[in-house]
Structure formats: structure tokens, C-alpha cells
Specification:
Blueprint (H helix, E strand, L loop, with lengths): L1 H14 L2 H5 L15 E7 L2 H18 L2 E7 L1 H13 L7 E4 L3 H7 L7 H6 L10 H6 L10 E6 L1 E6 H6 L10 H11 L21 H10 L16 H17 L9 H9 L5 E5 L3 H4 L11 E5 L12 E6 L7 H11 L2 H11 L16 H6 L4 H10 L23 H16 L5 H16 L4
């Protein structure tokens, strides 16, 4: 029943975006049929994915003869499209970027190729080099890999060091959320048009929902208790959400209800905000002088806390192969290349070592050039990933694993609907209390499936 519900949710969610997807050039199934000389890849439009677009033709295609047709979508649209395609067995794509949330659910439903056999056969891939949290999060119940990590991440605070120095502020390496709120108030307006902090306000379980849920965890809240009692309007959940919404409304970025990862990255790199709490993977872009006005002047701190020792999330954008592909061999070659040490070195040599898609391999942090380029953020990134605890991210037992999500099919719809209301609260169109009371009813309906 849960599989059927997920398909219905996916189909409905993707319907509204179908026109945009159709115009993006995906072009249906692979033009090569079973020949494997051309594959369709669907991926999220993050900086690391933009880099692989630039490098594929002159390297991978040149070496293998395999043409790669990319379809790139914003995060929310990507989630809708890939879920629809995989859940309905449409077979439009040979490879897709998915996250740690989807893998165990989709593996259980039989929608994905296992990839351990491909990784084991390719000795140069060195599967043993992958960080254990990444392997665990991308493995199925049978212990096999069902996705290969492109990059891994936790979350951290990033800030403009020049602004802090001018204001005489020292940002703690392990700050509390109250300390960050106090700093945001002091640096708001530090430069013309600059706001204190950027926090995602764009609705979506993986957009606003990701940083918000880490805040809920450390404030003592949770979506569900271990025995599946909904907690969306509990005191701790409300306290965290009010803190988040008030911080954004008082000292956050302009246009916050439409601001996701990409908008916040731009806001900090272009000196429109003084701080940003988000994915550790953003550091490479912030340190790129070609696109960032504060490259070399960025400070980093661990994810802010309240009641927990740590609060960073755990995520991997990874390459998965739907079982519907007719080009498994070609698709696997692309995935192994895109997750390899060879590809990391290619990015470092061609585009700069700070832009390496890190967070997935232990050896990355031993490369001298990368150590130098990532001196300001590499250690915090690695320790945040290793310190994340998906099984116990808060102050109480959880019914499933997951730091910034609940690992059930229904959460994709639940998290998106609740964050739509919270985004509306940021916009001043509703109250946090009403948003969470409505969310509680939705969460109670979901909980009935598991009680």
C-alpha cells in the first residue's frame, strides 16, 4: 500500500512541472536503445553537477565513446521528476541523482539496480575508500550499494570574516543558536543592503525542511516519537519553528520565502548576507574567486546547537540506476567514473581543488592540494559527516533513521506540505501555530499507517 501511495503522490506532484521538464531536452528514452552508446542522466542543478556537465564530453565521452545527455532541474523539481519516473517505472532515465532518503525505500520496492557488483569489479574505484556514513546511507537492507556517492555533506555555519572583524565579533567554533541569533542582529546592515543571515525559506522537505528539522532536533523536538505519535505541534517543535521563522523575518535575506540553497549561496558569496547555515558542500563554491566575492575570507563553524552535542545533517547526492534502464553497462561506467578518485583529480586540476566533490572518500582528505585548498573548511566538513548520527539525532528515540528527514515514503509529501505552511508564515501570510496545527493533522494521518 505504501508503494501505491508513493506513486500517486509522485505522479500528482510531478504533473505541475511536466511542461518545464518536457522543455529541458530529456528527450525520452536513450536513443541508443540497448546499444549503450548514449545515456540519459537526470540531476539536480547544484554547482558540482554543473562542473560535471563541463567535463564529461572532453573526458568521459572521449575515452569511452558514451554520450551523456543531461537534464538538470532545481532541487524540488528534480525530486518530483525522479520520483515519478522511478516509481512509475517510466524508464526515461538511465541514471539519476538521488539522496540518502530515497535509497532504502526504493531498494525495498525493487526499483533500483544494485551497484556493489559493478564497484567490486572495478579495482580502480576502491570501494573500501568510501566513508562509512556514505556507504551505510546508500545501502539497501541486503547490505549492497544501490547508489554511488557523488559528494557527501553535513551542515555548518558559514560567515563573512571581514564583517565579523569589523564588528569585533568572534564566532564560536561550536556556537549555540542563540549566539547566532545575537550575532545576526549585530551584523544586520553591517554593509549597505546586507542582512544578518540566510536560512532557506523555500518550501520543500529537502529545502526549508532540511535546516529546520536539524533545528527542531537540537531544540528537543521530533516529527514522530518512537511509537509513531505525531509531534509537529509539540512545544519543542513550535519553539524551534518560531525561532527559525522569527530569525529569518527579523534578520534574514530578502525574498526569503523563495530562497533555497542556490539563492543563499548567491547571497553570501555576493555579500548580501553576513552568515549562512547550510550544506558543507557549499564551501567549494564560496572559495571560488571566479564566482564568489568573499573567496578566501569565509569563516566556518559547526552546526549550531541547543540541547544536543551536534546538529549537522547527513546527506549524499548520489548516482542511482533505475531497473528500467536498457543501458546498464554504459550507465555503470558513467557512475563509476563520476564517483571515482580519477574524477576528483580531474576537477582539482581543471577547475580548482576547492571545487572537488568531496565528503565521500577518506583519500580526498589526504591529497596535499586539496588539504591546502580546503584548509579552512575540510576538517569541519569531515568531522561533521563522521559525527552525524542518523539513528539518534535528537534527545529522544526515533522510529526511523534520518537526521533531517523521516525515512518513510510519506515524508516527501508530508514534509513538503508542512514547509509550505511554514514558508507562508515567513511571508507573513499565516502564523506558526496554525501552520503546525495543520501539520499535526497531516502527521497524525501518516502515523496511522505505522501504529
Amino acid at each position: 500500500m505504501r508503494t501505491k501511495r508513493m506513486i500517486r503522490v509522485a505522479a500528482a506532484a510531478a504533473a505541475a512541472g511536466s511542461l518545464l521538464v518536457a522543455c529541458s531536452g530529456a528527450g525520452g528514452s536513450s536513443s541508443s536503445g540497448g546499444g549503450g552508446k548514449s545515456i540519459n542522466v537526470l540531476m539536480v542543478g547544484n554547482p558540482q553537477m554543473e562542473d560535471i556537465q563541463k567535463l564529461t564530453k572532453s573526458t568521459f565521452t572521449k575515452d569511452t565513446g558514451i554520450k551523456v545527455k543531461f537534464t538538470v532541474l532545481p532541487e524540488n523539481e528534480l525530486r518530483d521528476k525522479v520520483t515519478q519516473d522511478v516509481a512509475t517505472q517510466a524508464g526515461q532515465y538511465d541514471v539519476a541523482t538521488v539522496g540518502a532518503y530515497e535509497i532504502p525505500i526504493w531498494q525495498k520496492n525493487g526499483w533500483l539496480h544494485e551497484l556493489s557488483s559493478y564497484a567490486d569489479k572495478d579495482t580502480s574505484f576502491d570501494k573500501a575508500d568510501l566513508l562509512k556514513p556514505m556507504v551505510t546511507s546508500l545501502s539497501g537492507s541486503d547490505g549492497k550499494l544501490y547508489a554511488l556517492p557523488f559528494y557527501g555533506e553535513s551542515s555548518m555555519l558559514m560567515y563573512n570574516k571581514d564583517v565579523m572583524k569589523a564588528k569585533g565579533i568572534t564566532v564560536p567554533e561550536h556556537p549555540t543558536w542563540q549566539q547566532i541569533a545575537d550575532i545576526a542582529a549585530k551584523v544586520d546592515g553591517a554593509e549597505p543592503g546586507m542582512k544578518g543571515i540566510c536560512l532557506r525559506g523555500l518550501a520543500g522537505w529537502g529545502e526549508l525542511g532540511a535546516p529546520l528539522t536539524t533545528m527542531v532536533n537540537t531544540f528537543g523536538g521530533t516529527w514522530f516519537t518512537k511509537d509513531w505519535k505525531a509531534q509537529v505541534n509539540s512545544p519543542a517543535f513550535k519553539k524551534a519553528t518560531n525561532f527559525y521563522v522569527n530569525l529569518v523575518k527579523q534578520h534574514g535575506e530578502a525574498g526569503a520565502p523563495q530562497a533555497g540553497f542556490t539563492e543563499c549561496l548567491n547571497a553570501l558569496s555576493q555579500k548580501k548576507v553576513a552568515m549562512w547555515y547550510d550544506a558543507t558542500s557549499a564551501a567549494g563554491s564560496l572559495e571560488d574567486p571566479a564566482s564568489s566575492k568573499i573567496a578566501g575570507h569565509v569563516g566556518y563553524a559547526y552546526a549550531p546547537t541547543v540541547e544536543t552535542k551536534s546538529s549537522g545533517w547527513l546527506w549524499a547526492w548520489a548516482w542511482a540506476m533505475p531497473k528500467t534502464t536498457k543501458n546498464a553497462d554504459a550507465a555503470s561506467k558513467f557512475m563509476l567514473w563520476a564517483s571515482s578518485k580519477k574524477y576528483e583529480n580531474l576537477v582539482g586540476e581543471k577547475l580548482g581543488w576547492a571545487r572537488v566533490p568531496a565528503g565521500k572518500r577518506a583519500s580526498t582528505y589526504e591529497i596535499p592540494q586539496y588539504q591546502k585548498a580546503a584548509a579552512s573548511f575540510g576538517d569541519i566538513t569531515l568531522k561533521s559527516i563522521e559525527g552525524a548520527d542518523p539513528a539518534n539525532p535528537g534527545v529522544q528515540p526515533r522510529p526511523t533513521v534520518g537526521v533531517q528527514y523521516v525515512a518513510i515514503p510519506e515524508f516527501q509529501d508530508l514534509g513538503t506540505k508542512v514547509t509550505q505552511e511554514i514558508s507562508a508564515a515567513i511571508a507573513g501570510k499565516t502564523s506558526v501555530d496554525k501552520a503546525l496545527d495543520d501539520g499535526q493533522k497531516l502527521a497524525e494521518d501518516v502515523a496511522k499507517n505505522y501504529q
